């Protein structure tokens, strides 16, 4: 991680890093190990981009977008639960189950401004822990070709565990690009 400038303009909540070191995905692994390695790499990249920021920094916007780093954390927590709990297991989990999605289709993005950094990180951590538990059980039960219990909302067909993992890597990779720009706008931090 780049050295952090400590000028008063920075909005860093704490000097310590909250995120364990990020490791490169394995160069020689089976398909599941490769996919899991890349997913973990991208998860940790997002956390590095949000490490140590206070509430104001997590709410900072870079016009014209309304996207924030806090919103990214909450959105990706929702995405984790959507694919690994709702689609894969056909189960519901809070806070998504009781959110008023009809009143606000972007509830996770918008409500993130009301959450503390600790709440956002705990929400994301819990979602990832559920995903990891679900993945371990699914891989032990039969591998990447298994199909989800719930059908894809767009096609009406189930999706494979492989498809979900590739989609999650894509989702994180895309949003990590946003996180790069948002973090640089907060305090000038760039790079990995």
TrEMBL record:
Disordered: annotated segments: 1-29
Positions with biased composition (Basic and acidic residues): 18-29
One Pfam family matching this protein: MST
InterPro entries: DinB/YfiT-like, MST-like
Residues that span the membrane, as ranges: none
Name the record gives this protein: DinB family protein
């Amino acid at each position: 991680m780049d050295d952090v400038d400590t000028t008063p303009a920075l909005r860093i909540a704490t000097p310590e890093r909250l995120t364990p070191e990020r490791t490169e995905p394995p160069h020689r692994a089976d398909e599941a190990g490769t996919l899991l390695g890349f997913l973990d790499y991208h998860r940790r990249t997002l956390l590095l981009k949000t490490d140590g920021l206070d509430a104001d920094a997590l709410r900072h916007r870079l016009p014209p977008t309304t996207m924030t780093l806090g919103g990214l954390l909450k959105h990706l927590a929702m995405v984790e639960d959507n694919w690994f709990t709702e689609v894969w297991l056909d189960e519901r989990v809070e806070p998504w189950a009781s959110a008023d999605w009809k009143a606000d289709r972007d509830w996770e993005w918008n409500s993130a401004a009301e959450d503390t950094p600790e709440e956002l990180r705990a929400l994301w951590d819990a979602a990832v822990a559920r995903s990891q538990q679900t993945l371990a059980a699914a891989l032990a039960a039969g591998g990447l070709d298994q199909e989800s219990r719930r059908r894809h909302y767009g096609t009406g067909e189930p999706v494979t565990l492989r498809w979900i993992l590739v989609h999650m890597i894509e989702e994180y990779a895309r949003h990590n690009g946003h996180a790069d720009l948002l973090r640089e706008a907060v305090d000038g931090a760039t790079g990995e």
